[in-house]
Structures are given as C-alpha cells and as structure tokens.
Amino acid sequence: MNRNRTLGFALAALIFVADQAMKAFVVEGLGIAYPGAVREILPFFDLRFVANNGVSLGMLAAETEWMRWALVAMTALIAAGVGWWMLREKNRGDLFALALVLGGALGNIVDRVRFGYVVDYADLHVWTPWNPEWRPFLVFNVADAAITIGVVILLIRALFVREKPKADEPGAPVENANA
User: What is the pLDDT along the chain (179 residues), one digit of tens a residue?
Assistant: First the structure.
C-alpha cells in the first residue's frame, strides 16, 4: 500500500476516534445524555442531545428494529464501497476526501449498532431580528461534519479541478521536436 493510502486510512481512523471520543465526552463526561438535555457553550453554539434514528436531514428514519439493521447494512455497504474506492484511488486530494467520508461513516455506524440511533450534539444557531433562534444547520456531530466536508471536496474536485496528465500517461501532450 502506498504512503498516501496509508495516510488516508490513518486519517479515517483519526476521524473515527475523534468522533467517538467527542460523543463520549458530551454524553458521559458532560451528562448530556437524554432528549432535551442542553448546555449553552456560546451565544450561538449549544451542546444538545439528539438521538438521530435517520440519515441526512432525518430521511430514512429507522423506526423499527428491522429498519435499524437495514440502515446499518446499507451504510456499511456504502462505507465498504468508499474503502474499496480508497484502495484504487491515485489522487491524494480525492483519497483524503474519501478518508473523511469513511471515518465519519464508521463513527455513525458504530452509534447505530450500539444505541439504535446516532448521537448528535453540535447545535449552531444565529440570532436574527426576525428569528432569535435561527438554526441554519441541523444538530450534528464530528462524523457528520467529516462526511459533509469530504463530499464537498469530492464534488468541487470533480466539477472544477482538472488534473494535468503526467508526461508518461495516455492523453499527455506530446512535445513537437520540430518546433
């Protein structure tokens, strides 16, 4: 395995550990462990316990045990696909973005297996004259942030970044010796 891949999988492991450690600190260390539990940290940031039994934006809510395990299986398959992609990816930027996605996915999968839901706690909100408690984001966690950042990086790279082929790759420009 090359150095970039090793660093990519190490980054995924770091994201996973940071996510699980932060969740443990919030739930066990600070006691924010039940629905409605909240601790104001800053005027625009609270730690708020949310048991998220769905995925992005609360979609695909796992309301039964069968749905819970189906969601675990589906997200585990996606995570395995991301891991496979990382084994084949040659571009360092894409590899590190995939590592963010993988580490975050694994953190949320472990929650769903252990608790039946994902522990979310980070609540950003902004005071505005028309809505004093406007929340531009759903309550989230380290894993959610890593997944989001990784996907955004992949999208930006796919849409706006064009890598120049190296001289020995097919499609590379050929220098004209007669010029």
Answer: 699 999 999 999 999 999 999 999 999 999 999 998 999 999 889 999 999 988 765 667 788 899 999 999 999 999 999 999 999 999 999 999 999 999 999 999 999 999 999 999 999 887 777 776 777 678 999 999 999 999 999 999 999 987 766 666 665 556 665 65
Please confirm, yes or no, whether 120 is among the known catalytic residues. Answer: yes
- The separation between CA 66 and the C-alpha centre of its own chain, rounded to angstroms, equals 24
Write down the catalytic residue from 46, 94, 111, 144: 144
From 46, 94, 111, 120, active-site residue: 120
Q: Are 26 and 46 in contact (CB under 8 A)?
A: no
Q: Is 111 a catalytic residue?
A: no
Is the Cβ–Cβ distance between 59 and 79 less than 8 Å? no
